[in-house]
Amino acid sequence: MCFVAWDDWLRNQSDCRIKSKYFEIAAQVGVPIDSSAAVVRNPLGRDTCDHDGLSMTNRYKTVLLLGAPGAGKGTQGNILGTIPGFYHCSCGDVFRQIDISSELGKIFYEYSSRGELVPDDVTVKMWAQSIHAHTVLSEYKPHADLLILDGIPRTVEQAKLMEKHIEVLKIIHLYCNDEEAMFERLRRRALKANRLDDADEKVIRHRWDVYEAETRPVVDYYPKELLFEVNSLGSPAMILHDILDVVAPIQDQVFKNPLQD
Hints:
The chain is built from eleven helices and seven strands. It starts with 5 loop residues before the first helix and ends in a 6-residue tail after the last helix. By secondary structure, the chain is α/β, with parallel strands linked by helices. Helix 4 packs across helix 11 (236-255) and helix 6 (103-112) crosses helix 7. It has helices spanning 6-11, 16-20, 22-28, 73-80, 91-97, 103-112, 120-136, 156-161, 179-192, 201-221, 236-255, and strands at 33-34, 39-40, 60-67, 86-90, 146-150, 166-175, 227-231. It folds into two domains: 6-40, no CATH class; 61-260, P-loop containing nucleotide triphosphate hydrolases (Rossmann fold). Strands 4-5-3-6-7 form a five-stranded parallel beta sheet, sandwiched between helices. A two-stranded antiparallel ribbon has the order 1-2.
């Protein structure tokens, strides 16, 4: 029987529908799949995917961007993601790209269609599958790229579940001591995007309250020595300057020069 080098094959595909059928096709042609751990094994026996977690030495080297709604996590993450040696992953993008015909996608749709929060374990599983897909496509190279996470973990439980996937090297906390200034930023952002409902003060305050109750404790969950605080009311350029002062040495120390790879 002829075996296909699945990782190499998938890298050359540009059709998202083909990518989403990766595991299904592998099963159809006889590549063994461990469905309980979502592991695909090639003919030589090497595991190419393990959504139940990586070994402690192979966890993704990660910097977390944490902060309240409107703090600029996405803005800074997107900028960092354009710099060689950094890879930005937004949890919002994971949700937007989910295939709702997949097993996890159906669970996600079931909760989101009712306006309910997706359970932490499902969220982390969706993220793990998504980030692995990006490694298979060589968009994210764990041996050369520092992973910048934005929007996940959102809860302490998610932080615990993700410990088997990521090694957190630093936490950039974009803080703001002026709630009214942040609310005004959120209102302007919503109006600019023509999302009138999101500009409502009640909606904004609810998002802030959810952050304080569920996500703010994530900052306190990690060791204090990992924490670096940046005032999110500064200019985007100055905020980026402060962040790079911290993450650039980490990237260089862990990966050396990615352009040499």
